[in-house]
Amino acid sequence: MAGSLSQYMAQEMKQIRLVGGGLAGLALGIALRRHGVPVVVHEALSYPRHRVCGEFISGVSEQTLASLGIAPFFAQVARPQEVSWCHAEREWARFRLPEAAYAVSRFHLDQVLCEELRALGGEVREKSRQVPQTEAGWVWSAGRRPTQGPWIGLKAHVRDVSLRAGLEMHLGTDGYVGLVEVEDGWVNVCGLFRSDSSIRAKDEPLLLPYLRREGLMNLTERLQQGTWREGSVSAVAGFRLGGQPPLANLISLGDAHSIIPPFTGNGMSMALEAAALAVEPLVDYAQGRCDWSQAQQTMAAAAQRKFGRRLGWALACQHLLLAPWFRRPLEILSQQQLLPFHTLFTLTRR
Ligand SMILES: Cc1cc2nc3c(=O)[nH]c(=O)nc-3n(C[C@H](O)[C@H](O)[C@H](O)COP(=O)(O)OP(=O)(O)OC[C@H]3O[C@@H](n4cnc5c(N)ncnc54)[C@H](O)[C@@H]3O)c2cc1C
């Protein structure tokens, strides 16, 4: 009886189509299925796959994970909290994050979320690349939008590398790189660098010449001695940080809506938080309690309230981190333990 009632309700509900089966799309799909909403996810690639990402999730609350119905998975994930903060290969500071982060590879995480969504009756269509639609019921969670931008993101998993702390962050001359252990002893090495077309890789991953350009010779050597995970070396270029141009008639979330500088480790949290924000307006739309433009307006206003301030702070901090004139004051402040890490943590995550 319960089954036939839920089948009847699902038939009555409008379908939601999510374009992009990354973190935002899969988490939202799971939450919508838990409310009985029919869901189709279109994913351009197939699972499992490596993505350019530091795989260090900082700022997401247990309440957000619970509201999306994905808390049990995160309860099994590593939770680093100590940070070693280095410049020119010297440790400038060591501190403890106010809240432990989560460390898990996207290779594993997205695969698990996809399986969970399918188990809940959601449809996930792999190798299904879409273009933006103007129809009601389409949500754009397809990540970074290709555009001209000064950055390149490079990532790899390397084993047999020992870390100084749960998260090792290195500031280079024109970028930064983080190292964190994800599952099975693999260390995620991921950096954001100012792109330079003259840098070429000869018989080695592009990450290594970029690390040398950053002056990180010891780190390069440490990594060269490690074991590199097949298929994990990835790169992304041509994107812009900050708010992304809106797409007409679509609800967009995650990186499709705005991209926070990666040093915060907050991009995946924002994708999950945005998914949590979208549940109520989309359930209301699916159940016919509001129309599509109302759902869109509710979501846009909620996202602005939730993310506007932290994006502004994070962009300003990244600007200072990479400004040559700020290096010396930054070094002194770090070494004297005068950097307000806790305040900055809050401002870039709430
Ligand atoms: C160098 C770098 C380091 C980072 N490090 C961290 C970190 O340590 N911690 C952190 O929290 N965040 C980090 N981020 C940011 C984080 O990766 C993103 O914020 C997060 O992945 C956003 O999730 P999403 O679901 O919006 O997009 P994505 O995870 O990018 O997922 C989008 C999905 O959409 C699919 N897709 C794309 N186009 C289409 C299409 N047309 N049709 C169908 N499917 C499509 C893609 O294949 C992909 O699976 C980093 C980013 C960079 C660039």
Describe the structure.
The chain has 350 residues and is an alpha/beta fold. The protein folds into two domains: 2-74 and 106-147 and 240-347, 3-Layer(bba) Sandwich (FAD/NAD(P)-binding domain), CATH 3.50.50.60; 151-237, D-Amino Acid Oxidase, Chain A, domain 2, CATH 3.30.9.100. 37% of the residues lie in helices and 21% in strands. The protein is built from eleven helices and 17 strands. It has helices at 2-12, 23-34, 62-68, 71-74, 106-119, 207-213, 217-224, 267-286, 292-321, 327-335, 341-347; strands spanning 16-19, 39-42, 56-57, 82-87, 90-96, 102-103, 123-125, 138-140, 151-159, 167-171, 175-181, 187-194, 227-228, 234-237, 242-243, 251-252, 258-259. Strands 4, 5, 9, 10, 11, 12, 13 and 14 form an eight-stranded mixed beta sheet that branches. It has a five-stranded parallel beta sheet with strand order 7-2-1-8-16. It is globular, with a radius of gyration of 21 Å. The protein starts with a helix and ends with a helix. It binds flavin-adenine dinucleotide. Residues 19-25, 42-45, 51-57, 129-130, 141-143, 153, 190, 192, 236, 254-256, 262, 265-269, 271 line the site of flavin-adenine dinucleotide.
